[in-house]
Design goal:
Helices cover about 35% and strands about 25% of the residues. It is an alpha/beta fold. A seven-stranded parallel sheet has the order 7-8-9-10-11-12-13. It has a six-stranded mixed sheet with strand order 3-2-1-4-14-15, with no helix packed on it. Helix 3 packs across helix 4, helix 4 runs parallel beside helix 5 and helix 5 runs parallel beside helix 6 (about 205-220). Fe (iii) ion binds near residues 65, 67 and 303.
């Protein structure tokens, strides 16, 4: 196996418990794993060497929340929101219509293009959700195609109740849709997925419906994750914790009780700055979560409705500017936090044995993600 030493690193972020950051460092990669970390002057010889050019080296971002399996565009909704309209979950049905009309090749090509955007902006681990098919066949192909792009595939058949179950074309009964999700649709999708998710919100699924859907997924061996408290306060956060969900995502409207419950659990609070940015909702204040001791992640929520960004650097900039994160906390949330939200130990850090997924920056420190917003400071993206 070829070994590679990365030299001339001004600042190396490993998230090592004792020494999370070190200056004038070097790092050796062997067989796709971090094999040595130390002072530059002690670096061992290796087969290849990479000069970091006096830049900063950080773990690759772990984007634990992205909806990439869709077709179509909703720029007109964004434009209307910027003119004062509010965001509504119902817009999802427009993307469902476009997604159903797309071929497998079109769906996969769109997702692959978004994956390459994500990667070039530093995301080396990405979760992909279904949720714009909402029929057995369209959800099945969404998770099956997603599994060709990432191991972190999430079945989100419970995104909204599709139109044909509301207007009587198939059944005038949302219960019939929930029956389908926990029955035939889950059976078809579970073999391709690691996770099950529910949009637990007004206009989508109630807490009781969400419980039923998540419990069915858990019984099939899937891990749970929940969209909750995006549009208002909700019992969905407590449901997520009660069911041992890996993550509860959005948290735009968290109550003190939600924060207390999250802090006493191993459910990660995943914040999605792109959503508040693109919907003009208030930004959640991360200090409440961090001071209480909750684990926090940052993710893009890349989707055509509420947050059409593939840029974790953009999310870091907004998190620092508007959500109360320090730059170090934002970086931690976008790497280690995302890994915790996916229950992954091998990514999100550069301790010995970690996957060698890392970013070489054209900047002396990761503070530049917020200090130089919108500037492409990632020079190299390496992954195992
Ligand atoms: O995470 N909240 C639910 N789902 C997406 C939005 C989907 C859409 O509007 O198309 C989200 O924000
Ligand atoms: Fe989402």
């Amino acid at each position: 196996m070829t070994t590679t030493v990365i030299e001339n690193i001004a600042l190396l972020v490993t998230h090592d418990d004792e020494r999370p950051e070190r200056t004038d460092a070097a790092l050796v990669i062997d067989d796709g794993r971090v094999a040595w970390v130390g002072d530059a002057r002690d670096a061992p010889a290796a087969d290849l060497s990479l000069d970091a050019g006096g830049g900063c080296v950080i773990p690759g971002f772990v984007d634990s929340h992205a909806h990439l399996m869709f077709a179509g565009d909703r720029a007109d909704e964004f434009e209307a929101r910027m003119a004062g309209r509010t965001y509504e979950a119902g817009g999802i049905r427009r993307t469902v219509a476009a997604t159903r009309a797309a071929t497998d090749e079109q769906l996969l090509a769109n997702a692959a293009r978004l994956m390459s955007e994500l990667r070039s902006q530093g995301s080396t681990t990405v979760e992909i959700k279904s949720g714009y098919g909402l029929s057995v066949a369209d959800e099945e192909r969404s998770v099956r195609l997603a599994a060709t792009l990432t191991p972190e595939v999430t079945f989100l058949g419970a995104h909204v109740v599709p139109a044909e179950f509301l207007n009587g074309t198939v059944a005038d009964d949302r219960d019939a849709y929930v029956d389908l999700v926990v029955g035939e649709m889950l059976d078809a999708c579970a073999p391709h997925a690691r996770w099950i998710d529910v949009f637990c919100e007004t206009g989508a699924f109630t807490v009781e419906e969400s419980r039923r859907i998540l419990e069915a997924g858990i019984a099939k061996g899937l891990g749970a994750r929940v969209h909750a408290a995006q549009l208002g306060e909700s019992d969905g956060v407590r449901l997520a914790v009660e069911l041992g969900a890996a993550s509860v995502d959005h948290g735009t409207f968290l109550t003190d009780r939600d924060i207390e419950v999250l802090a006493g659990s191993n459910t990660v609070a995943t914040l999605l700055p792109g959503v508040e940015f693109s919907t003009r909702q208030p930004y959640p204040d991360v200090r409440r979560l961090l001071d209480a001791g909750a684990t926090v992640a940052l993710a893009t929520d890349c989707n055509p409705g509420s947050s059409f960004t593939t840029s974790m650097p953009f999310c870091l900039a907004v998190a620092v500017r508007d959500m109360g994160f320090t730059p170090a906390e934002a970086l931690r949330a976008a790497t280690l936090g995302g890994a915790a939200a996916l229950r992954r130990e091998d990514v999100g850090h550069l301790r010995l044995g970690a996957r060698a997924d890392l970013l070489v920056l054209d900047a002396p420190t990761y503070v530049h993600f917020a200090y130089r917003p919108g500037v492409p400071i990632i020079r190299d993206v390496l992954s195992a």
